[in-house]
Amino acid sequence: MQVSVESGEGLRRTLKVQVPSGRVDEQVDKKLREMRGQVRLQGFRPGKVPMKVVQKRFGPQVRGEVLDEVVRATYAEALEQESLRPAGAPSIQPVNLEAGQDLAYEASIEVMPDVEVQGIEAIELNRPAVDIEAADIDRILDRLRRQHAEFVETDRAAEDGDRVTIDFDGKVDGEDFEGNSGEDVPVPLGEGQMPPEFEEQLVGMKPGDEKTVTYTFPEGFPDETIAGREASFAVTLKKVEAAELPEADDAFAETLGIDGGLEAVRERISESLEREREQAVRARVKNQVMDQLVKNNEIELPQTLIDSEIDQLREQTRERMRQAGAADDEPELPADQFEAEAQRRVALGLLVNEIVRANDIQLDGERMQQALQRVASGYEQPEQVMQYYLQNQELMQSLQLQVMEDQVVDWVMERAQVTDKPMSLDALTSGADGDDEASTEA
Fold first, then answer.
1. Nearby residues of 356 by Cβ (< 8 Å), 6 or more positions away
2. pLDDT digits (tens, 9 = 90+) for 411-440
3. Domain at 149-244: CATH architecture
4. pLDDT one-digit tens code per residue, 211-235
5. Domain 2-110, classified CATH 3.40.190.10, yes or no
6. Phi, psi angles (nearest 5°) of residue 316
7. How far is CA 84 from the centre of its chain?
């Protein structure tokens, strides 16, 4: 077999492969002889059909099958011979398929780039240093109390924390749109059931008041017909109910089903916040690591991988839009909308894989088990969830990738410059940066 490689633009390569005719002819002959013992044709006894008849009747079909098999096999051999790593499936064009002549074809591919990760020691990381304060526990305790509040009707103006009941009818440029109206809709103010800009305009209204509330839908709103446009809502406030919170005492702890009184509730909250803090800190550090890996390492990326990533991002976006009730189940989503994110994902995948390969980082079985337990703990029957994951190869591969990425982050942190940055828990979990002094306030 003869193989030559021509370089094209970027990572594009063309393999020119020539296979001796004897290799194809031998396999064709072998298959036809095997068929002869099995084929049944009228006028011939089983196994006694003349070879010439078998060749005439089945030769073209068998040759086509053999050509496919030989092309697949020799393509793999050519890649190994030339030490090429394809980024995707090849585009194969036949050059010569004539019987009795050497098989010749060309395979056009993109190859994986050579990656050498640099700049690890230059990476600077700000690791949030967060203490769980009594005020943080109080804030969660107040949230629990609000969830168990009793609402009492009042004639006063609506305030943040109240629950109001409204009728509304919205228009965009005088036209109705999907979900534009509702009657007797309860709205707990300050809980984010409706956009803050909408809820803020309900504060101060009294029962019986009517008001025009304006709201501009975000550019990325699922319903593209109203995305980025301003709507006017005719709102009638029908009822205001004030929240009466239960006392934070041992009796309240009992209603939560927690033994040990209020102190046990505060301990549970503290443990939960510590887990939340750990996850948020790791997420922040991981984002910094990934951002700086991409910044410090410029890689030529295979368009094949970028296109594949774009397809995944597009489908994920469509699924989110369907779940959000978008009117159009198959919206137009141009590729350039996802190009930058796809490039980042592909680059990170190549960099992480190279760090793993070059440093022989092995998947940590204990961390994998912990990750699986963490996922399952969010469900009512964690054992069943763990079993489901263990039986689903795709889910397990996704979890393994997450764990391996975390191991790579730890590997980078051991070599990078890490500075602990004081920060409040609220700033950490809200995603705010804040300066050191301001962020330490609880």
1. 404, 408
2. 999 999 999 999 999 999 987 765 443 333
3. Roll (3.10)
4. 999 999 998 787 888 999 999 999 9
5. no
6. -60, -40
7. 29
